[in-house]
Amino acid sequence: MITELGHFALILAFAVACFQSVVPLVGAHKCWQGWMATAQPAATAQFLLTAFSFAALTWAFVTSDFSLRLVWLNSHTDKPMLYKVTGVWGNHEGSMLLWVLIVTLFGAFAAWFGKGLPPGLKARVLAVQAMVGAAFFAFIIFSSNPFLRLAVPPFNGQDLNPLLQDPGLAFHPPLLYVGYVGLSMTFSFAVAALIEGRVDAAWGRWVRPYTLAAWAFLTAGIGLGSWWAYYELGWGGFWFWDPVENASFIPWLLAAAALHSAIVVEKREALKSWTILLAILAFGFSMVGAFITRSGVLTSVHAFANDPERGVFLLMITAGFMVGALTLFAARANVMQAKGVFGLVSRESGLLVNNVLLCVAAFVVFFGTIWPLIAEMAFDRTLTVGAPFFNMAFTPFMVALGLVLPIGSMLAWKRAKIGRVIYQLRWALVLAVAVGCLAFAMQTGRSALAPVGLFLATWLVAGAAVDLWSRTGRSGGGAGRLRRLFRLPRADWGKAVAHAGLGVTMAGISAMVAWEVEDIRVANIGDSYELAGYTYTLLDVTDTEGPNYLTTIATIQATKNGREVGMLYPEKRFYPVAQMPTTQAALNIGFWRDLYVALGDPQEGGGWAVRTYHKPLANWIWGGGILMALGGLLSLTDRRYRVAAGAARRKPEPNEPKGVPAE
Predict the structure, then answer these.
(1) pLDDT tens across 316-365, in order?
(2) Confidence of residue 304 (pLDDT cuts 50, 70, 90)
(3) For 315, 369, 433, 622, which has the most beta carbons within 10 A of its beta carbon?
């Protein structure tokens, strides 16, 4: 009964979304207050209905209702409760229901907290958001229905993909989807502004919180997915440049560019075209990611489905929204004329350079991701674009971004003197050079990756600190400036934390890639071996059982200079229902390094294959990601975002109906 109600609620939500797509839009065009006012209750109803539908599907998984086809395919009675819940979105149909739930959630947020928005703009934003929801409701109902029943329910299910039965994957998709789908609200604001024919400073203030929230959650989701791949897959890497990884990374880069561009719109009413275009492209590429993940057009270990028919449906949705939005963008070019004039050396120019670097980097990643498909279709050639291409093509843009970021963030608006900024950053530069030289002196016969990376990391972190300190003024002495430091707006602190987080991540990546040491061997019980100053001893290998898997666990002791550092327990699991093995790497985590051990298969001549890594600054990669996400969320708590930009009502024009804003 609950399942049928959930299915009915999904269909009803689709009907509400269709209503919300049309009526408020017509009302805004005709200046009919009543029609515009329907957007808010419709957005609330749409979210509540979708939430009930999602809750009904979750209940079916929790209670192991195998009469539901989706539960039978992705669950099992012996599975731990956490993974019964995560099984809801560990598949194509359930993940799309989560997707549309987040679309309606953001629409509801705009309805609940958008009291300062002019009625016309609010109605248009909610209507465009409902169009996005309606398209995906149609996709779910007509091609990916999660509520299909089985005529004869089986006694048990086929279990969830074992790779997804991990705490990291329990929270990775929801975080990633909040970021992915949150960009739909940025898209809705952009299209609504184009329809209305007005892009101004107030619009920049309204759109920034949604873009910031989406970017912060996308950062957390990507970081958590990278951490999961690091310890779960047993290969010791944190990023493989897989098509689906790239599909989440491209919107992240474009969202970061849109976020910085919106600052210029808000402060100076410049870069309007840039901001609108980036808002459209960021969400467009998030939909491209959904297409890649579910169509089977590109091979990936992360793919949810391999279904060309669903892929065509998603491609039609993506093309419809992108062609429509870009056509509107071209038609409304005249309303996006910049008002603020700025010099070649200014904060505006610095942010423009930042945008160019981020956008070019995003399109380099997109080109490398899609090129194998183009080569196969156009030239009948099978090609693989791997990590070497992406590392060579992408890294220079990140190096350039790291160099200009501290300078650009401290330049004055409109006109600035670059010499004054560099003078303020002189000690940060000295420190960065010193750290780079120290890294170069520590290594012999290796690449310049680690020294350059640590130089950039120090430059970014120290530059963020100098930027904060410079905002406290020059008077009042150290104590007075320190008091003012802690009274700075949270947005300033958030920016500094996010920029410093990028530096920390750069340090972790460069040190880990350049200085990582690997050992692969066959070890018998009692054998010892050394790696990077640590001694590893294989003490025991035992077989045991988990809740729904069989496992082989090795016990390895790590010592340094005769003193025990820690015990590591790498596992080799086998899931009987799914007939699939997995590797669980063992980690001894330290501030300066990770000790990483993965257990392989037993060998014919005796012993076990053991892979051991020494990974310098490994956790700085994810620590920096956490700092970036926290910086975004800290900025989001700034009171200037909580005070509606349009709270003060503008006087109507002479020929304009009272209470209705000018269109």
Answers:
(1) 999 999 999 999 999 888 777 766 677 788 888 888 999 999 999 999 99
(2) low
(3) 369
175 within 8 A of 233, measured Cβ to Cβ: no
d(CA 337, CA 333) in angstroms, rounded, equals 8
With H, G, I as helix, E, B as strand and everything else as coil, classify residue 480: helix
State the maximum Cα–Cα separation within the chain, in Å, rounded to a whole number: 92
Band of pLDDT at residue 641, cut at 50, 70 and 90: low
Kind and range of the H or E element at 594? strand 593-602
Q: What is the pLDDT of residue 340?
A: 65
Contact by Cβ (8 Å): 525, 539: yes
pLDDT tens for each residue of 99-145: 999 999 999 999 998 888 889 999 999 999 999 999 999 999 999 89
Whether the CB-CB separation of 556 and 519 falls below 8 Å is answered with no
Distance in angstroms (rounded) separating the CA atoms of residues 334 and 322: 20
Tokens of residue 126, six digits: 């909610």
Distances (CA, A) of 183 to 30, 103, 329: 28, 9, 17
Q: Which residues of 378-392 are buried (b: 16+ CB within 10 A; e: fewer)?
A: eeeeeeebeeeebee
Domain residue ranges of the chain, discontinuous segments joined by + = 1-165, 166-415, 416-515+621-629, 517-619
- Kindly state the tokens that stand for 330: 């071209």
**CB-based burial label for 188 (10 Å; 0-12, 13-18, 19+):** buried
Under a CB-based contact definition with an 8 Å cutoff, are residues 234 and 598 in contact? yes
pTM for this model (two decimals): 0.90
Tally of CB atoms within 10 A around 140: 23
Residue 653 pLDDT level (bands cut at 50, 70, 90): very low
Name which of 252, 50, 223, 71 is nearest 147 in CA terms.
71
Provide the pLDDT for residue 299: 55
Q: How much of the chain exceeds pLDDT 70, in percent?
A: 93
Sort 244 into a burial class: Cβ within 10 Å, 0-12 / 13-18 / 19+: buried
What 3-state DSSP class applies to 115?
coil
CATH code of the domain made up of 1-165 = 1.20.120
Question: What DSSP line would sit under 412-460, residue for residue?
Answer: PSSS--HHHHHHHTHHHHHHHHHHHHHHHHH-SS--SHHHHHHHHHHHH
Q: What pLDDT band is residue 445 in, cutting at 50, 70 and 90?
A: low
- Count Cα atoms within 13 angstroms, Cβ side, for 104: 32
Which region holds residue 476: left if phi is over 0, alpha if psi is between -120 and 50, else beta? left
Token pair for 20: 């919300």
pLDDT, tens digit, 9 for 90 and up, residues 194-239: 998 888 888 888 899 999 999 999 999 999 988 888 887 767 788 8
Name the helix (H) or strand (E) containing 256: helix 243-268
**Token pair 């957007």 is at which residue?**
39
- Separation CA 331–CA 547 (nearest Å): 60
CA 591 – CA 589 distance, rounded (Å)? 7
Long-range contacts of 418-426 (CB under 8 A, 24+ apart): 418/345, 424/466, 424/470, 425/462, 425/463, 425/466
CA quadruple 344, 346, 350, 356: dihedral sign? negative
Query: Burial level of 650, CB count in 10 A (0-12/13-18/19+)?
Result: exposed
541: part of which helix (H) or strand (E)? strand 534-545
